[in-house]
Automatic annotation (TrEMBL):
Residues reported to bind substrate: 290, 327, 331, 359, 387
Gene behind this protein: lysA
The EC number(s) this enzyme carries: 4.1.1.20
EC main group: lyase
Active site annotation, chain numbering: 358 (proton donor)
GO molecular function ontology, one term from the record: diaminopimelate decarboxylase activity
Positions of post-translational N6-(pyridoxal phosphate)lysine modification: 64
Protein name: Diaminopimelate decarboxylase
Species, as recorded: Streptohalobacillus salinus
């Protein structure tokens, strides 16, 4: 993201055409700032990638990456479909006026009330994950005398992580049905239910993936199964959902592919399988989360205390941390950053950026080079748009940050900063 950072005559960092120091002053910190044009650009790269190849597709935004009414409205404007994994995410979609027929529901333990809400609102598709869910669906669809489209979530035995993929015959995962046996059992159970329309298969092989090999192997595996079902009882998948996981750039170590090249690779492999087995061409669905919003936001913080330990490390503390970005603590995620009010100053000071939670693991960055920092400086952390706000917590009773959208050089508050009253609004007295 560094290459997209600009500077103004005050020596301040400019993001999405806005002076970031002004934004911090106006809205306070910690503050998430989304560049809406970037969100649209990412979304269009996928949508137009399919269009250019003349392929029927749905690009479903995985809303767990960042869900808010404004965000889902942008997804709607871009013609995306939407993944939800809970009643709360579905409720947000309803509030955003998202077309329900383009909503897909995921989850490895969907509760009866969640499935009921999905059925009542006539969402487009339920991605069935396990046998318990099949039973719940049978009961509910009878009760509501309603039909629904479903996909079967399967684990093709391929796990992709950034640069590696791991081949496992029988995947150890809490999600979905294995392809060896369970998928067929689930298929037969679903076929017994006249209210269920099985459209095809779904798989999601991992996250922050920088290569296409894992996807291509998954497609091969899925088609081995689909071909078996075709030969046995003439089943033709109308939909093939290949999940999300497309990687983005957090630091210079990351080298993601162009979003459209993932699309091209997937389409070509599906084409190859179709030709090989002589099957009908399915709609291809994908579910990018991170790749839509991840590199479309920065987080602004105010620097406070410093602790310099000679010959060991310099700690610089900011007014947020794991409560607004748990990824470094959770899985050693790396970020890049700059000091927004000192953009012209040379990065000569090695610092580790600490959060303010009572938890030693609450660190945002280790040993990065910054200009000489002092209390009151504004730190801008890059590429924080995915799994930042959406994973934020109230640990230490910090109110959640505010979120601003910027487009056409206009900033708009889209999620208010929480108040202390918000923090105690569900607390009841015991006196
Ligand atoms: C998390 C998830 C996604 C989105 O993953 P990204 O890495 O954010 O693209 C898509 N589909 C499913 C089923 C998921 O669990």
């Amino acid at each position: 993201m560094r290459e997209r950072i600009e500077m103004n005559t005050k020596g301040h960092m400019v993001y999405a055409g806005m002076d970031t120091v002004d934004l911090a002053n106006q809205y306070g910190t910690p503050l998430f700032v989304y560049d809406v044009e970037r969100i649209r650009k990412n979304a269009r790269a996928f949508v137009e990638g399919f269009k250019a190849l003349n392929v029927k597709a749905q690009v479903a935004y995985a809303s767990k990456a960042f869900s808010s009414v404004a965000m889902l409205q942008v997804a709607k404007q871009e013609g995306l479909s939407l993944d939800v994994v809970s009643e709360g995410e579905l409720f947000t979609a309803i509030q955003a006026g998202f077309p329900m027929d383009k909503v897909h529901m995921h989850g490895n333990n969907k509760a009866r009330h969640e499935l009921e809400m999905a059925i009542k609102h006539k969402i487009g598709c339920i991605v069935v994950d396990n046998f318990h869910e099949i039973e719940l669906l049978q009961e509910l669809l009878m009760e509501y005398k309603q039909d629904i489209d479903v996909l079967l979530r399967v684990t093709p035995g391929i796990e992709a992580h950034t640069h590696d993929y791991i081949l496992t015959g029988n995947e150890d995962s809490k999600f979905g049905f294995d392809l060896t046996k369970q998928a067929r059992e689930a298929y037969e159970l679903l076929k017994l239910n006249p209210h269920v329309h099985l459209k095809g298969l779904h798989c999601h092989i991992g996250s922050q993936i920088f290569e296409t090999d894992g996807f291509l192997m998954a497609i091969k595996r899925l088609y081995e199964t689909l071909n078996e079902w075709h030969v046995r009882d003439g089943f033709n998948a109308e939909v093939l959902n290949l999940g999300g996981g497309f990687g983005i750039k957090y630091t210079d170590e990351d080298e993601p592919l162009e979003l459209s090249s993932y699309v091209k690779a997937l389409v070509e492999q599906v084409q190859e399988e179709i030709d090989h087995y002589q099957l009908l061409y399915p709609e291809i669905w994908i579910e990018p989360g991170r790749a839509i919003v991840g590199d479309a936001a920065i987080t602004l913080y105010t620097v406070g205390s410093k602790k310099e330990i000679p010959n060991v490390r310099n700690y610089v503390a900011i007014d947020g941390g794991m409560t607004d970005n748990i990824r470094p603590a959770l899985y050693q995620a790396k970020y890049d950053a700059c000091v927004a009010n000192k953009i012209t100053e040379a990065p000569t000071y090695q610092a580790s950026v600490a959060g303010k939670c009572c938890e030693s693991g609450d660190m945002l960055m280790w040993d990065v080079l910054l200009p000489e920092v002092k209390a009151g400086d504004i730190l801008a952390v890059f590429s924080t748009g995915a799994y930042g706000y959406s994973m934020s917590s109230h640990y230490n009773r910090f109110p959640k940050a505010a979120v601003v959208f910027v487009e056409h050089q206009q900033a708009k508050l889209v999620v208010k900063r929480e108040s202390y009253e918000d923090l105690v609004k569900n607390d009841l007295s015991y006196e």
